[in-house]
């Protein structure tokens, strides 16, 4: 773990930004890099129904561009000496984050949990919990 990158998945929320502080601290402590990953949901639909004014592919590309813009803003504000790499993926958040975590060059995942309880926990997918259960490396879940 001490020679591999820290993975920080983000949805650009305030909660995720809080976890970034921990990721930076861990990267500085171990003198490793940070890989930032954001996953864009794959839109679905059928343009034959004329529900969407754009195709799902065009919508996904627009979502990726917005994510890239947010990533650039984040990098401009980031204060760390650690090397930073950014990745934007398309698909299911859990699947893509776990794939990145298990890629072989990640030593630890630092991920935020939104801390939902009760009905909200039941209704919303808990990405942090799923990543912690499926990743082969240590996972630090930050509330």
UniProtKB/TrEMBL annotation:
<dbReference type="Pfam" id="PF00582">
    <property type="entry name" value="Usp"/>
</dbReference>
<feature type="domain" description="UspA">
    <location>
        <begin position="4"/>
        <end position="143"/>
    </location>
</feature>
<dbReference type="InterPro" id="IPR006016">
    <property type="entry name" value="UspA"/>
</dbReference>
<comment type="similarity">
    <text>Belongs to the universal stress protein A family.</text>
</comment>
<protein>
    <submittedName>
        <fullName>Universal stress protein</fullName>
    </submittedName>
</protein>
<dbReference type="InterPro" id="IPR014729">
    <property type="entry name" value="Rossmann-like_a/b/a_fold"/>
</dbReference>
<dbReference type="InterPro" id="IPR006015">
    <property type="entry name" value="Universal_stress_UspA"/>
</dbReference>
């Amino acid at each position: 773990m001490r020679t591999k990158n820290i993975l920080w998945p983000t949805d650009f929320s305030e909660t995720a930004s809080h976890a970034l502080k921990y990721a930076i601290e861990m990267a500085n402590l171990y003198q490793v890099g940070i890989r930032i990953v954001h996953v864009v949901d794959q839109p679905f639909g059928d343009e034959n129904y004329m529900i969407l004014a754009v195709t799902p592919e065009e919508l996904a590309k627009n979502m990726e561009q917005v994510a890239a813009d947010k990533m650039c803003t984040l990098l401009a504000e980031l204060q760390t000496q650690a090397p930073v790499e950014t990745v934007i993926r398309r698909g299911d958040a859990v699947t893509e984050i776990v794939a990145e975590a298990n890629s072989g060059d990640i030593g630890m995942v630092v991920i935020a949990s939104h801390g939902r309880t009760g009905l909200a926990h039941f209704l919303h997918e808990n990405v942090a919990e799923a990543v912690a259960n499926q990743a082969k490396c240590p996972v630090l879940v930050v509330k």
